Amino acid sequence: MRFLSTLAASVIGTLLALGLIVFFFVFFIFAVSLSADQAPTVQSGSVLTVPLEGDVPERTTDDPFQQAFGQGPSYDLRDLETSLQKARSDSRIEAVWLRMKGLSAGWATLEEIRQAVAETRRSGVPVLASSDEFGMSEKGHFVASAADSVFTAPQSAFEYNGFATTLAFFDGTFERLDVEPEIIRAGKYKSAGEPFMRKDLSEPNREQLTALLETVNDRFMTAVAEAREQSVETLTRMATEDAFLSSEAAVDAGLVDGLRYEDEVRDRFRSIANTGMTNDLQTVSVEEYRRVSAESAEQSYTGTGEIGIVYAEGQIVTGETEDQFPSGGPQTLGSTDLTEALQTARTSASTKAVVLRVNSPGGSAAASEAMWRAVERTAAEKPVIVSMGDVAASGGYYIAAGADSIVAAPTTTTGSIGVFGLVVNAEGFFENQLGVTFDGVQTSPYADLFSPTTPLTENERRVIGTSIDQTYQTFLQRVAGARGMDVEAVNEVAQGRVWSGRDAEEVGLVDTTGSLADAVAMAGTAAGLGDGPYRTRILPRPKTFVERLAGQFAAQARQAWRSITMNALERQFWQKKQVLDRAIGSQDVIQTRLPFTPTIE
């Protein structure tokens, strides 16, 4: 009997192994065929279609395995901007079709997309936007209003009812868990501790969030009013007194040009392209068109070098970037990875200038300092221009301070020049929830300074406060040196206050407002590469699907082993610890970061 069971197990194992080999072989051939795919053939009289759905990421990978699995969007913000730029000079492109399908990107990203659309329209290429049955929100309409014509489908939704932002507070959660978080901060606006210590907004936090909201509202109203030839006062009155949620009302208000089904919009493009109503409409999607060379689009690169675009995305941590694939957790930015990427750009003879694209709420103060140093060293040898995305605050601003110039979108969330320390006393949690108590000996009263099982003493609070104040002073000095201001002047606009990009320019924290494309143009000019377009190099190289999958195999194996070997008490502890980690984070005690990124809808 044992022989038969062993034989059956061997046969099953062999069959499974062979099946996996065949699967990966077929998948490898399929992926190779994808990677070998040539640039698409663009027919004369084509319409460039741009599907705008969900978020538009800062960057994607060309990894064929990831494409085969359908992981993530098929194009990124840079692809979109360069595709529209090529379409302006490509005689084969007759028009651009913005297909609005529930756009939810951040406002700074929307600003960049809208600017690229407006420049395409000004170049003489017709741009039409339609939402079909997906309807349109203020975010979608903000971008679509830059087109020549805007259409929505009959009976579809159209949201026009103002803007709001809402924050979550965890004070009640910690009370239930018997956890006492304690925040020590530098800067009266440093609201990092509020979600853990309060049940509502403090007045300084309410003030800065209101200012951010007003910037978004002003940008939206001004842009739409100009595009739709209406007054800001009229649009404001509609949002505050006559809010509506239907496309029919949007037509009556003059915010869209008409109600059209998809086939009717296609007929409109046939008319523009002079293809005849009975012929197929020639289209090329931005996913395909991004692979079209600049030369075939009748453009030629200027200069003999390239511009390195270095991406700094996610919450700042020490060491290497923590890959959250496939769980989809918060993205992190490792100090080691960014430092190495900047070193690559700095030492490359072909890289003549660097654009540092920052999209980070900050994080570890020590990691931010290390990254700032890498930026400063690079700026000492080559022009370095910072381009800020949706958020470049606290540690995200810290690393930007080492550059030659800073460009932010008007609606970028930036500033937050402040420092805080978070110490958690979970003594009650362990004792009352798990029945665990702690005791020990030490050689110094400060030896257990950051212990999560004892409350802070006054002396311990003083020691941590001194360290935080020192970090804050260093932060102020870094900014003062970069912005040509004295420390006192920086302190007046710092204090942990969050600024919009528009307001940050007014107080001297950024040099100008603009897009990633504007920052690339500034870098090209500074490096003497002519008027553009420019050759670019993306750093750091995104991990391939296989690399990410291999890393997750190891992580999942560790998690599975922990689950198998845990007893009931340990399992309960880890479950509750995960709740704390999600709410508080597991970063350094002293941090330069936003605990949240305001989402304005």
Q: How would you portray this structure in words?
A:
The chain has 601 residues and is of the alpha/beta class. It folds into two domains: 46-161 and 243-289, 2-enoyl-CoA Hydratase, Chain A, domain 1 (Alpha-Beta Complex), CATH 3.90.226.10; 306-593, 2-enoyl-CoA Hydratase, Chain A, domain 1, CATH 3.90.226. Strands 10, 13, 15, 16, 17, 19, 20 and 21 form an eight-stranded mixed β-sheet that branches. A six-stranded parallel β-sheet has the order 8-4-3-2-1-9, sandwiched between helices. Strands 6-18-22-14 form a four-stranded antiparallel β-sheet. Helix 4 packs parallel to helix 5 (138-144) and helix 13 runs parallel beside helix 14 (365-379). The longest helix has 34 residues, at 2-35. It is globular. It starts with a helix and ends in an 8-residue tail after the last strand. Residues 30-36 and 582-586 have low confidence and may be disordered.
Task: Give the SSE map.
Blueprint: H1 2-35, E1 46-54, H2 64-69, H3 77-89, E2 93-103, H4 107-122, E3 127-130, H5 138-144, E4 149-152, E5 157-160, H6 171-177, E6 180-186, H7 194-197, H8 203-228, H9 232-241, E7 244-246, H10 247-252, E8 258-259, H11 262-273, E9 283-285, H12 286-289, E10 306-313, E11 315-317, E12 332-334, H13 335-347, E13 351-360, E14 362-364, H14 365-379, E15 384-393, H15 395-400, E16 405-408, E17 413-415, E18 419-425, H16 427-434, H17 458-483, H18 487-493, E19 498-500, H19 501-506, E20 512-513, H20 516-526, E21 535-539, H21 545-565, H22 568-584, E22 590-593
Parallel strand pairs: 1-2, 1-9, 2-3, 3-4, 4-8, 10-13, 10-21, 11-12, 13-15, 15-16, 15-17, 16-20
Antiparallel strand pairs: 5-7, 6-18, 14-22, 17-19, 18-22
